[in-house]
Amino acid sequence: MKPQSCVNIKKEWDIVAARQLGRDIARKIGFGTVDQARIATTISELSRNIYLYADHGQICFEVIDTFDNKGLCIIAIDVGPGIEDIGQVLEDGYSTSGGLGAGLPGVKRLMDEFDIHSEVGKGTRIKTIKWLR
Amino acid sequence: MSSLLKLDTEGYKALMKRYIETRDEQSLYEIEQASKLFIKNSILPDEIVNMHIQSLKDLYPNLSEDIQYSMNFLLEAMIAYGIAHQEYQQLREKQSELKSEISVAASMQETLLETKKPTIDGLDIGVISVPAHQMNGDYHHFVKGRDGSLGIAIADVIGKGIPAALCMSMIKYAMDSYPEDAMTPKAILANMNRVVERNVDPSMFITMFYAQYLPSDHTLRYASAGHEPGFYYNSSQDTFEELTTKGLVLGVTPDTTYPQYELKIESNDMVILLTDGVTECRDGERFIERQEVLDVIKRYAHLPVQKIVDQTFKYFERLQDFELRDDFTLLILRREV
Fold first, then answer.
1. Do B91 and A38 make contact, defined as CB atoms within 8 angstroms?
2. Closest chain B C-alpha to A119 CA, distance in angstroms
3. Looking at chain B, which residue has its C-alpha nearest residue A111?
4. How many structural domains does chain A have?
């Protein structure tokens, strides 16, 4: 795994920066237009969660390039309230912002792998991977 | 008509090319059919836009970059629709799972609450109970005592659907645990009141009417816990009377007592017991009057009582456009000669 590149998320602007960096990396790995768009949407969702609910956090990208697999790993880490009921936030139709956000279920659909750790009062760490096919 | 479009970029491209060249209606018809297949095979809008982009690039290698960029822009705009579509699909699956679970529960409930209409010489009995949704929040039960008496319970949980149905199952168990005979209506209601008071959430109300018919001296004893009043049909005078009773709904206070009433039943007299699903039928926006129920019953009064209740139900089902708003239970007894 190559070293991470990260974007700090504090302002709404930072979401755009994270999308830009993620898309550039995705393009370099060889993802097509559709997957680039899906990866960008994933980055939006993850960084909006940080922007809206956490004090601060980071979106980090790792290029996965092993003998049989190529892909992009996105890690979102925040220091914030954490998630009490992870099952609930992964359920369709649940969104605390009440908006039309794709939310975490959307991220799960857009990506190939998804993993989440959260501790109430401390923060949340989400790791998600898209494989190049 | 050409064979079905292949659901890939090549197929899409070929069809689009033909359409651009001929602008024929058939190509449009075919893409319409393909579009349904896309949905069926969960092809998302962004993927379709992508097929379009690829096709454009292949057909027009010199396509202006601006147009290409604009297509990529459109693709981005479609992403959220794709996610929403997937969510919708999954919710649909979940819904059908729930539906089948409920229908299993409903048939379990049916078995659980099953009660046989007893045959008693000189007494014609008819009953119909139809839930508004899949599960029934009404309950009726017959108990034939060793002394030849017939016990009839009819109850209604205020509310309908699954919570009401679960509640009813508990009532059934409680009823079953009583000795079959020698229980007077007032004693049974007092007992049920204690059971409900202890076991049921205070926000749920259950009303119950308990009647006991003694064929030997043609007497009906009854008591009611806040239940929709039944009717007595006096055959010799051809009049209906309301079975007025006093008695609090079940479960409000632990030591409620229930006054018991007695009625002599003559030949061809009828006793009509029901739930509010019958009297609160609606004709459009208008609630029907209790009198209307009696008018309908009277219209069919020459028939065997099972036919009366069946026809009465059909009448009100139709009046409400075949969509019940509440569980409907109607029970009639008629003393034969």
1. no
2. 27
3. B83
4. 1
Residue A119: count other Cβ atoms within 10 Å of its Cβ.
Answer: 11
Q: Is B75 in Cβ contact with A37 (below 8 Å)? A: yes
How many Cα atoms occupy the beta-carbon half-sphere of B61 within 13 Å? 0
CATH of the domain at A49: 3.30.565.10
Residue B260's closest CA among B210, B305, B298? B210
The residue extents of the domains of chain B are 9-92, 115-335
- Please state the pTM of the whole predicted model: 0.67
Distance (Å) from the alpha carbon of A35 to chain B's nearest alpha carbon: 10
Give how far the C-alpha of residue B295 lies from the chain's centroid of Cα atoms, to the nearest Å.
25
Q: Are A7 and A44 in contact (CB under 8 A)?
A: no
The residue segments making up the domain with residue A16 are 5-131
Q: Mean of the pLDDT values across residues B209-226?
A: 94
Q: Are B249 and B207 in contact (CB under 8 A)?
A: yes
Which of B46, B80, B90 is the closest to A102 by Cβ?
A: B80
Distance of alpha carbon B29 from alpha carbon B43, whole angstroms: 19
Judging contacts by C-beta atoms under 8 Å, the chain B residues touching residue A33 are 50, 53, 72, 75
Q: How many CB pairs under 8 A join A and B?
A: 38
* Tens-digit pLDDT profile for residues B120-166: 889 999 999 998 888 888 889 998 888 888 999 999 988 667 887 88
Check: CB of residue B52 under 8 Å from CB of residue B30: no
Query: Which CATH class, in words, describes the domain spanning B9-92?
Result: mainly alpha
Please give the single-letter amino acid code of residue B318.
R
Query: Which letter does DSSP use for residue B3 in this model?
Result: P
**H-helix or E-strand spanning residue B44:** none
Q: At CB < 8 Å, which residues of chain A contact B?
A: 32-34, 37-38, 40-41, 92-93, 100, 102, 105-106, 109-110
CB-based contact, B53 to chain A, within 8 Å: yes
For B73, name the nearest residue in chain A, comparing CA atoms only. A37
Which of residues B188 and B147 earns the better pLDDT score? B188
Q: What does each C-alpha distance from B323 to A43, B96, B284, B327 come to in angstroms?
A: 48, 21, 11, 11
Topology of B115-335 in CATH? Answer: Phosphatase 2c; domain 1 (3.60.40)
Q: Give the gyration radius of chain B's Cα atoms.
A: 31
For B95-125, the pLDDT digits (tens) are 999 999 988 988 888 888 888 889 888 999 9
Confidence bin at B2 (pLDDT 50/70/90): very low
- Residue B91 at interface with chain A, using a CB cutoff of 8 Å: yes
**Lowest-confidence range among A11-15, A120-124, B282-286?**
B282-286
Same fold, B9-92 and B115-335: no
Say if CB B172 and CB B185 are below 8 A apart. Answer: no
